Amino acid sequence: MELADLRIFKAVVDEGGVLKAARKLHRVQSSVSARVRQLEAAVGTQLFYRDKQRLLITPSGEMLLAYADKLLQLSEEARSAVSGSQPSGTLKIGALESTAASRLPQVLAGYHHAYPEVRVELVTGTNDSLTAAVAQRQLDAAFVAETPQGGNLCSMPLFAERLVIISAAGHPRIARPQDVAGDSLVAFPNGCAYRRALERWIGHGRQPVVRVLELASYHAIVACVAAGAGVALIPESVLATTQHQGLARHRLPDAHARIVTPLIWRRGESSAALSALREQLRAQPAAA
Question: Could you confirm whether the keyword Transcription regulation appears in this record (predicted)?
Fold first, then answer.
């Protein structure tokens, strides 16, 4: 079993098939297929179920993938340590859209300046989808809104956020859950921690959330709220980046308004690139 075989195997898993893996690795498709079969012969078990044009990873393949991740990571760390070089390779991170827009630009700019050999890939998503992606090794780390309890994930608290309710400018003052009775909730799809926070607050007042308008970006959410489509809960840091007129903001009690953004990653799995990011985040002043 060679590291090159493990890289090819991991690429097939990450890309969801041989064709995309071959394109990523700049190899011909037949070569990638042959190396996968050689790896299966070397480990003595089937790593993929083959269904026409699809490859589905087997339980044995899932087990090997965990070891492949660790071995490839150790190989990269050993190369960097021996050569004295800076962190390199690819760092796949996820973030809430709010964090990506308001908190990460300076972080990523500083990181890129310090470690130009690291290729950073950033994806955005909901709290739940990002947490699952880290646990399933689709991402190296993610900036989320809820600290996972137990399991195989570590966390590092970072940014303190204050959440505010926004409405159209003509909406009466919102101070109690009863004040949004009859309003639609404008929010990200299920899995969004901020949506859950607003639904919990509304539920404390025994007010049911009847209608939800689900959108995929804060720009769309803010625009729809300004147009009178409903109310939304967003971080003040995001509101500061918008230019929309016709909005009113309403403060929540601290118990519902305060939230901390942590960075999460898998326990015992940290590449040199991820370790460098964590060190940079530790060194920066705490964001209020």
Answer: yes
